[in-house]
Automatic annotation (TrEMBL):
NCBIfam families in the cross-refs: Fdh-alpha
Domain named 4Fe-4S Mo/W bis-MGD-type: residues: 248-304
Residue span, 2Fe-2S ferredoxin-type domain: 18-96
Organism: Rhizobium mongolense USDA 1844
Residue span(s) of domain 4Fe-4S His(Cys)3-ligated-type: 96-135
GO molecular function: 2 iron, 2 sulfur cluster binding; 4 iron, 4 sulfur cluster binding; formate dehydrogenase (NAD+) activity; metal ion binding; molybdopterin cofactor binding; NADH dehydrogenase (ubiquinone) activity; NADH dehydrogenase activity
Cofactor dependence: [2Fe-2S] cluster; [4Fe-4S] cluster
Name of one Pfam family that matches: Molybdop_Fe4S4
SUPFAM superfamilies: 2Fe-2S ferredoxin-like, 4Fe-4S ferredoxins, ADC-like, Formate dehydrogenase/DMSO reductase, domains 1-3
Span list, region Disordered: 928-959
CDD domains hit by this protein: fer2, MopB_CT_Fdh-Nap-like, MopB_Formate-Dh-H
Lineage: Bacteria, Pseudomonadati, Pseudomonadota, Alphaproteobacteria, Hyphomicrobiales
Protein name: Formate dehydrogenase alpha subunit
Keyword Iron appears in the UniProt entry: yes
C-alpha cells in the first residue's frame, strides 16, 4: 500500500455549465466558465508553483509564485485569481517567470528557519517543494536561518526562537515557520466558519494568531483541524506526526462518530495510525472534519480496552479471562438453558448504531433465526424511532429526504431540536457558509444554541419554546400558513390527497392553534411565530433539519408528522434546497434501522407479519420465522423485572448509561441470568454482565455505515483487530456455537445477502461502492445511481399524507416539589455516553457534565457558578457542578450525559413517545438545590462499578 494522494487544484471548481476553451503551454483545454487559470493548468496536467492557494478556499493571490504570462496582456497576473477566457493563450514557464519566482522564493527562504532535516514537515512541506520546483539554489539575503519571528532574551541579550504554542493537545503552533500565506485563516473562515484566527502585526512582524495574544486552547478555535490541514509548512503540525514521523501508506475509511459520516484518510506507519485527514472526495464532508473525527481516535489503543473474553457466574464475582471458544460455548449453553427453562421468548438482542450495517444485520439475523423470536431492538429506539414512524406515515419511508449538498441551495432553514455546531459540526459548517451567503435561519429550541448568534451568522428568528411544546409551536406555524393562504395549492393537489389536506387545514385553522393562543403555554411570542411562518412559506427553498429535541418527547412522532405537514403544505419536498432532514446522532443509526433492528420489522422496514417478506428470508436462511413482533428494549426490561426475560446479547450499546430511568434499567439487568456485552470497554452495562466479548474499533474492520443522508459509505480495515476478531466474526462464531451454519468469509458477502433481500439496497455491493465512492439508497433498478433527493416525482407511499397533530401536554409536570424543567443534550468535544471521547484528550474541553442554570434561578437557590448542586426528580437524584448562563431561560436547566459519574439518566423518567416508546429525555421536572458533593446514590454506584470491574488475573498480579 502507498499514500492515497489527492490533487490540489489550487482553487475551487466552477459550477458553471458553460464551457470555455483556452491554450496553456501549447495544450488546448476546455473548462467551465469561471475556472481559474491555475485550476485549468492543473487539469491540463501542468503544475503552476503556488503557496497561498488551495482548492478548499477561495483564491487569495498573495504569494506571487503562481504568476503567468498571457498573450495580449501586460504584466504577470496571478493564475489563481485570473479567470479563464475564450481563446486565451497562457504561458506558465518563461525566463521572466523563472526569475520572478526564484526571487520571490528567495525572500521566503531568507525569512524561514532552515532546519529541514529535523523539521516534522520534512517530506510533506510545500515550501520545501516549491523551492525545488522554482530551482532555488542560493539565498543572498540575511543570515542563513535567521527569522523575523524571534524574541530577544533580556538575560543574555541573545536572540532565540519565539516560543511554540503547545497548549492544544493535538497540534503545535510554531510561529517561526509561518510564511503568512493566510491559508489557515481563510480555512477557519470559509470552511469551518469560526473566524478564530487572524494575521497579527505588520510587515516582518506579521504572523498568524488565535485571537489577541491568546493561546490556541484559550481561543475560539474548535480544533476542527482545518487550519492544520491548510498549512503548507510546519507552522501548524499534528503532535502525532512530530512523535511518530511521516506516514507511509493510507486507507480511506469512514468516521465512527456522528451521523454526518465523514470520509477520512487514515494515514499509517505500519499498523500505527499517524493521523486522520479528511478526504476531499468524501461526499458527506467535502474534505472537512471536526475535533472528534480528526483527532479523537486514541481510544482505540487506550489502556482500558479489554482484549480478552471474560465470564463470571455472578455480577459480584471478579471477571475471569477465558478463551474465545470457551466464551462462545458458555453463552450458547446458557442461552439454551434459559430458553428451555423459561421459554423461547425469554432471551433477545440489542444491535449497535456504532457497528457496521453488516454486523447489525447479523445480530438481528441471530435473534430471528437462532433465538427463534423477534426480541431485537436498537439504540434508535431511544433517539430516532419517531422519525421512522412519523416520516413513514407521511411520506412512506423513514429517512431524510436530501443529501448534505442540498443545503447549498436552501434559502430558508429551520433548525428545530438540534444543535448542529455541537452534534453535527461538519454539516453545521456547511450550513453556516450558506447562511453567510444570505440564506435565512429559524431556530426553534428552548436553549440559545450557538447558531442563534455566532460570528457572521445570526438567526432571523429564535423561538425559545417551553420544553415539551414542540407540537403546539409547529401547528401554530401551520395555522399562519393556512389562514394567510401561504400554502402551495398546486403542489398539494398534484402530490398529496386534497381531501386530507382540507381536513388538516380546517384543523390547524382552529382559533386555539393561533400563535396568540399557543403563546400562553409555549412561551413563544405570537409575532415571532407569525414572522417565522411567513419567512418559511415565502422565502424560497425551505429546508427543515431536526434532532433529538424533536423525537425524544412523549409526542415525538406527532412532531415529526407536524414537520412533514409543514413541508408538504409549502411544497418544500422533492428538489434540492428543501426537504425534511433528521440529523442522526450516531454514525450508523440510519443503517441499524435499515437493517431490521426493530422487533416488528425485517430489513428494509417491512413488517414481520408480511408473509411474502418473511418468505424471502425463510428460503434464504432455511428457518421458519416468527410472525409476531418481539419485545422493545423497555419491554425487555419490564419483562426481566417480572421474571420472564432472562438473557440478553448487547452489541456495542451501553443501555445503563444511555437509556432513561437508570434505576429501572439496572433492576432489569440485575434480574437477568445471562447478560452478554460485546464492547471495547467495561462500560456501565457490563457492571451487570456475566459474559464480556471484546469488540473491535472501526479502524479494525471492513464494512459500511449509512449516514443521516442515507449515504452508504465504506469502512475499511486499516489495522488488525487487537482483540483478534472483527465484530461480525464474533457474532458469526456465536451463531455457530448455537448451531447455525453460517460461513461468511468477508463482510462483502453479508452485503450481498442484504442486497438480495432488501429492495432499497438491491444494487449495492462492495465493487459498486469502490467505483462510486458511496451511494444513497434506494439504489435499485429504478434508481441505479442511488437517490440523493427523495420523493422527486412522487412520494414513496403514493400521495403525501396530511395528519392532524393535536397537542397533548406531557404527563411530566412541574410543581412545588419540582418546579424546573430539565432538558439534555451534547457538547462538541464529547460523543454520546463518552466511552470513546472520554478516553482521549478531548476531556481538556469537557472534563465533567455541568448543569446550566439561569442566573435568576441560581440566585433564588443561593447557587454560585461552579458550586456543587443536587439535581433531583421523581425518578432519582444526582450531583454535579453548576454553570450559570443565559443560554437557558428561567425555569429551564440543561445538562449533558457524557460522564457516567454523573449518570444524568438517573433523573429522567419512564415517560415515552406514544407510538414508539422513544423516551422523553427532553422534559423532566426537577429541583436544584445546593450540595456538598456526590450524592449517596453516586457513591454507592461508583463502588458497585469498581467492584464489578475487578479482573481476577489483574488482582492476582497485584498480589
Amino acid at each position: 500500500m502507498s499514500l492515497v494522494h489527492e490533487i490540489d487544484y489550487g482553487t475551487p471548481a466552477s459550477k458553471s455549465e458553460t464551457s470555455v476553451t483556452l491554450t496553456i503551454d501549447g495544450r488546448q483545454i476546455s473548462v467551465p466558465e469561471g475556472t481559474s487559470v491555475m485550476r485549468a493548468s492543473m487539469e491540463a496536467g501542468i503544475q503552476v508553483p503556488k503557496l497561498c492557494s488551495t482548492d478548499m478556499v477561495d483564491a487569495f493571490g498573495s504569494c506571487r509564485l503562481c504568476l503567468v504570462e498571457i498573450e495580449g496582456r501586460n504584466g504577470t497576473p496571478a493564475s489563481c485569481t485570473t479567470p479563464v477566457a475564450a481563446g486565451m493563450v497562457v504561458h506558465t514557464q518563461t525566463g521572466r517567470l523563472k526569475d520572478i519566482r526564484r526571487g520571490v522564493m528567495e525572500l521566503y527562504i531568507s525569512d524561514h528557519p532552515l532546519d529541514c532535516l529535523t523539521c516534522a514537515a520534512n517530506g510533506d512541506c510545500e515550501l520545501q517543494d516549491m523551492a525545488g520546483a522554482v530551482g532555488l539554489r542560493d539565498v543572498r539575503y540575511g543570515y542563513e536561518g535567521d527569522n523575523h519571528v524571534k524574541a530577544r532574551n533580556n538575560d543574555d541579550n541573545n536572540l532565540k526562537w519565539m516560543p511554540k504554542d503547545e497548549s492544544n493537545p493535538y497540534f503545535t503552533y510554531d510561529p517561526s515557520k509561518c510564511i503568512v500565506c493566510s491559508r489557515c485563516v481563510r480555512a477557519c473562515e470559509e470552511v469551518q466558519g469560526t473566524f478564530a484566527l487572524t494575521i497579527e502585526g505588520r510587515g516582518f512582524g506579521s504572523r498568524v494568531s488565535p485571537g489577541m495574544h491568546e493561546h490556541f486552547i484559550d481561543s475560539e478555535c474548535v480544533s476542527c483541524g482545518a487550519c492544520v490541514q491548510a498549512c503548507p509548512t510546519a507552522t501548524l503540525t499534528e503532535k502525532s506526526v512530530i512523535q511518530i514521523g511521516q506516514p507511509e501508506h493510507s486507507v480511506v475509511t469512514t468516521c465512527a462518530y456522528c451521523g454526518v459520516g465523514c470520509s477520512f484518510k487514515a494515514e499509517m506507519r505500519g499498523e500505527e495510525l499517524v493521523r486522520m485527514v479528511p478526504w476531499k472526495d468524501g461526499q458527506a464532508n467535502r474534505g472537512h472534519s471536526c475535533v472528534k473525527g480528526r483527532f479523537a481516535y486514541g481510544y482505540s489503543a487506550h489502556k482500558d480496552r479489554i482484549l480478552n473474553p471474560m465470564i463470571r457466574e455472578k455480577v459480584t464475582d471478579p471477571w475471569r479471562e477465558v478463551t474465545w471458544d470457551e466464551a462462545f460455548a458458555h453463552v450458547a449453553s446458557e442461552f439454551r438453558r434459559i430458553q428451555y427453562q423459561y421459554g423461547r421468548d425469554s432471551i433477545g438482542g440489542i444491535t449497535s448504531s456504532r457497528c457496521t450495517n453488516e454486523e447489525t444485520f447479523l445480530v438481528q439475523k441471530l435473534v430471528r433465526a437462532g433465538f427463534g423470536n423477534n426480541n431485537v431492538d436498537t439504540c434508535a429506539r431511544v433517539c430516532h424511532s419517531p422519525t421512522g414512524y412519523g416520516l413513514g406515515q407521511a411520506f412512506g419511508t423513514s429517512a431524510g429526504t436530501q443529501n448534505f449538498d442540498s443545503v447549498e441551495e436552501s434559502d430558508v432553514v429551520i433548525v428545530i431540536g438540534a444543535n448542529p455546531t455541537d452534534g453535527h459540526p461538519v454539516f453545521a459548517s456547511r450550513l453556516k457558509k450558506r447562511l453567510r451567503q444570505g440564506a435565512k435561519l429559524i431556530v426553534i429550541d428552548p436553549r440559545r444554541i450557538d447558531l442563534v448568534r455566532t460570528p457572521h451568522v445570526e438567526a432571523a428568528y429564535h423561538l425559545p419554546l417551553k420544553p415539551g411544546t414542540n407540537v403546539a409551536v409547529m401547528t401554530s406555524l401551520a395555522h399562519v400558513i393556512v389562514t394567510e393562504g401561504l400554502y402551495d395549492e398546486a403542489f398539494i393537489r398534484e402530490r398529496c390527497d386534497w381531501s386530507e389536506f382540507e381536513d388538516w387545514a380546517a384543523f390547524v385553522s382552529e382559533p386555539y392553534h393561533s400563535p396568540e393562543e399557543t403563546e400562553k403555554f409555549t412561551g413563544v411570542p405570537a409575532q415571532s411565530v407569525r414572522g417565522a411562518a411567513r419567512l418559511y412559506a415565502r422565502g424560497g427553498n425551505g429546508a427543515i433539519y431536526y434532532g433529538l429535541g424533536v423525537t425524544e418527547h412523549s409526542q415525538g412522532s406527532t412532531t415529526v408528522m407536524a414537520i412533514a405537514n409543514l413541508a408538504m403544505a409549502t411544497g418544500n419536498i422533492g428538489r434540492p434546497g428543501v426537504g425534511v432532514n433528521p440529523l442522526r446522532g450516531q454514525n450508523n443509526v440510519q443503517g441499524s434501522c435499515d437493517m431490521g433492528s426493530f422487533p416488528h420489522e425485517l430489513p428494509g422496514y417491512r413488517h414481520i407479519s408480511d408473509d411474502a417478506t418473511r418468505d424471502i428470508f425463510e428460503k434464504l436462511w432455511g428457518v421458519k420465522l416468527n410472525n409476531e413482533p418481539g419485545l422493545r428494549i423497555p419491554n425487555m426490561l419490564d419483562a426481566a423485572v417480572d421474571g420472564t426475560f432472562k438473557g440478553l446479547y448487547v452489541q456495542g450499546e451501553d443501555i445503563l448509561q444511555s437509556d432513561p430511568d437508570t434505576k429501572h434499567v439496572a433492576a432489569g439487568l440485575a434480574a437477568m441470568e445471562c447478560v452478554v456485552v460485546q464492547d471495547l470497554f467495561l462500560n456501565e452495562t457490563a457492571n451487570y454482565a456475566h459474559v464480556f466479548l471484546p469488540g473491535s474499533t472501526f479502524l479494525e474492520k471492513d464494512g459500511t455505515f449509512t449516514n443521516a443522508e442515507r449515504r452508504i459509505n465504506r469502512v475499511r480495515k486499516v489495522m488488525s483487530p487487537r482483540n483478534g476478531y472483527g465484530d461480525w466474526e464474533v457474532t458469526q462464531k456465536l451463531a455457530q456455537a448455537m448451531g447455525l451454519s453460517w460461513n461468511y468469509q468477508h463482510p462483502s458477502e453479508i452485503m450481498d445477502e442484504i442486497a438480495a433481500t432488501t429492495p432499497s439496497f438491491a444494487l449495492v455491493s462492495y465493487d459498486y461502492l469502490e467505483k462510486t465512492g458511496s451511494v444513497q439508497w434506494p439504489c435499485n433498478e429504478k434508481s441505479p445511481q442511488g437517490s440523493p433527493i427523495m420523493h422527486v416525482n412522487g412520494f414513496v407511499r403514493g400521495k403525501g399524507k396530511f395528519i392532524r397533530t393535536e397537542y397533548v401536554a406531557t404527563d411530566e409536570r412541574t410543581g412545588p416539589r419540582f418546579p424546573l424543567l430539565l432538558t439534555t443534550g451534547r457538547v462538541l468535544s464529547q460523543y454520546n455516553v463518552g466511552a470513546q471521547t472520554r478516553r482521549t484528550d478531548n476531556v481538556v474541553w469537557h472534563a465533567e457534565d455541568r448543569l446550566e442554570i439561569h442566573a435568576h434561578d441560581a440566585e433564588m437557590r443561593g447557587i454560585r457558578d461552579g458550586d456543587w448542586v443536587k439535581l433531583a426528580s421523581r425518578s432519582g437524584d444526582t450531583s454535579l457542578r453548576a454553570l450559570i448562563t443565559d443560554r437557558v431561560a428561567p425555569g429551564v436547566v440543561y445538562t449533558t450525559f457524557h460522564h457516567p459519574n454523573t449518570q444524568a439518566n438517573v433523573i429522567t423518567t419512564d415517560f415515552s413517545d406514544w407510538a414508539t416508546n422513544c423516551p422523553e429525555y427532553k422534559v423532566t421536572a426537577v429541583q436544584v438545590s445546593p450540595s456538598n458533593g456526590p450524592s449517596q446514590w453516586q457513591t454507592e454506584y461508583d463502588e458497585q462499578a469498581r467492584q464489578s470491574r475487578r479482573i481476577a488475573s489483574k488482582l492476582e498480579a497485584a498480589e
